[in-house]
Design brief:
Structural class: alpha/beta
Radius of gyration: 23 Å
Number of domains: 3
Number of helices: 16
Number of strands: 20
CATH superfamily of the largest domain: P-loop containing nucleotide triphosphate hydrolases
CATH topology of the largest domain: Rossmann fold
Oligomer: single chain
Strand content: 15-25%
Strand order of the largest sheet: 3-4-2-5-6-1-7
Helix content: 25-40%
Length: 475
């Protein structure tokens, strides 16, 4: 018999925070990790993103914090700023009734602001490895009273070369601390780290969340191009989503549609690649925090959004490929909830819709107000494209990209080159410096083609695994 959050030994303030966000029942990793962590055990959790691991360590952290003490009592290390922001928002939600202060520290943001936040308090610090070390060296972050340390997505830290820095940070925390380590894979260096810094850990293995989307009711809505804005307003008012992502193909369309909805009196924000990183972070935090119910986004900009409260996905533009369709509608119906996906279809896009229906193995029900459709199992399949190839002279500037997938996903150099040439239309010789690591890969493409390559591959599948693709940030 499955347990409830009440059965796991959580306090009333934490349970109230869970009720506020509508969490009904614990996921498998939460059911196993929360009691172990509450007993004071060290925990190794082998689990993918989307299994609910943030709550698995975040809820016990809330039980350990004494809000009356102003020192840092818990530290969560993350490999990327996007994950840092995501975890911070979740922990702030979980601690909202207990008076727990959570501070996010990451590169690319003013360090003085973060120093000021730490001086003002901060019971829990969530941070990227480099920025945490920087703040420690400046004596702005003191970990003498840190009783709880979490390493989130440890294998990504390994692949990004952060493991030595992680060890430095761990050596500066009390030996009596409790440690939790979460990782999708357990390569030898991570096992060695666990052996050295953890005490008799409880090991929890959770199977990766299936790519089958079996909790999403799918609909199509035939519409003319000129009627689309009005029809979108009609659908949003009829569906009354708690939170909805409206997907569009281009940045320009994203901005136009955002203004249209805003001018109709809707609480809406835009998210696209031409916005500054600070603006994107702000929008992401507002949406994750539930302050904005409607987000108009491009596929690339929305890649970091992993939010359990999204009730609706609306494909304002039919996705360019069936894989993109599956990736988009997978943003709803998460953590055991049901979701609804509505795709607007112009006459000229009927073939694309038919390709999607062939891909998912079913016809998509027509939307009408109050329409009900059975949830449809959908499986991702390898991407196939055929576009004209563009040769380069090789004398132009190149941009380095990072692909979220590597040896552990069975990827080889040839797979990556083939994906870029078939999806983005580049000649194979234009793809350079391909390096395949365990969980990540790197490649360089002509700078003028970088956006197109990212648009074509980010969120798609390679060897049956969903991958991300982004520029390598210069530190």
């Amino acid at each position: 018999m499955s347990k409830s959050f009440e059965d796991l030994g959580l306090s009333e303030p934490t349970l109230q925070a869970l009720r506020d966000v509508g969490y009904e029942a614990p996921s498998p990793i939460q059911e196993q990790a929360i009691p172990a962590l509450l007993e004071g055990r060290d925990v190794i959790g082998q689990a993918q993103t989307g299994t609910g691991k943030t709550a698995a360590f975040g809820l016990p952290i809330m039980e350990y914090i004494d809000p009356a003490e102003s020192e840092v009592q818990a530290l969560v290390l993350t490999p990327t700023r996007e994950l840092c922001i995501q975890v911070t928002q979740a922990l702030r939600t979980y601690g909202s009734h207990a008076g727990v202060d959570v501070v996010a520290v990451f590169g690319g943001a003013p360090i003085r602001t973060q120093q000021a936040q730490l001086r003002a308090g901060g019971h829990v610090v969530v941070g990227t490895v480099g920025r945490v070390l920087d703040l420690i060296s400046r004596h702005s972050l003191v970990l003498h009273g840190c009783r709880f340390v979490v390493l989130d997505e440890a294998d990504e830290m390994l692949d990004l070369g952060f493991l030595e820095d992680v060890e430095k940070i761990l050596s500066l925390t009390p030996s009596s601390r409790q440690t939790a380590l979460f990782s999708a894979t357990m390569p030898p260096p991570i096992r060695k780290l666990a052996d050295r810094y953890m005490y008799d850990p409880t090991i929890i293995q959770v199977e990766a969340a299936t790519l089958t989307i079996d909790t999403v009711a799918q609909f199509q809505l035939p519409v003319s191009a000129k009627d689309k804005p009005d029809k979108l307003v009609e659908v949003l008012r009829a569906e009354a989503p708690e939170q909805a992502i409206v997907f569009v193909r281009t940045k320009i369309r994203c901005e136009q549609l955002f203004r249209t909805l805003r001018d109709r009196g809707m609480n809406v924000r835009a998210l696209h690649g031409d916005m500054s990183q600070g603006s994107r972070d702000g929008v992401m935090l507002a949406f994750k925090g539930g302050r904005v119910p409607i987000l108009v986004a491009t596929d690339v900009a929305a890649r970091g959004l992993d939010i359990s409260t999204v009730t609706h996905v609306i494909n304002y533009d039919v996705p360019t490929s069936p894989d993109t369709y599956v990736h988009r509608i997978g943003r709803t119906g998460r953590v055991g909830r049901s979701g609804r996906a509505i795709t607007f279809v112009e006459d000229r896009q009927k073939r694309e819709l038919e390709a999607i229906e062939r891909h998912i193995g079913t016809t998509i029900t027509r939307w009408e107000q109050g329409a009900v459709a059975p949830p449809t199992p959908v499986r991702e399949r390898p991407r196939r494209h055929s576009k004209p190839r563009i040769s380069r002279d090789g004398a132009e500037p190149y941009t380095k990209l990072m692909l979220g997938g590597g040896r552990s996903a069975g990827l080889r150099v040839a797979d990556i080159v083939s994906a870029v040439t078939s999806s983005a239309g580049l000649d194979g010789e234009a793809v350079r410096e391909v390096q395949v690591l365990d969980r990540f890969s790197f490649l360089s493409v002509p700078a003028t083609e970088a956006d197109r390559v990212i648009e074509a591959l980010d969120g798609g599948t390679l060897r049956g695994r969903q991958v991300s693709l982004e520029r390598v940030r210069v530190r």
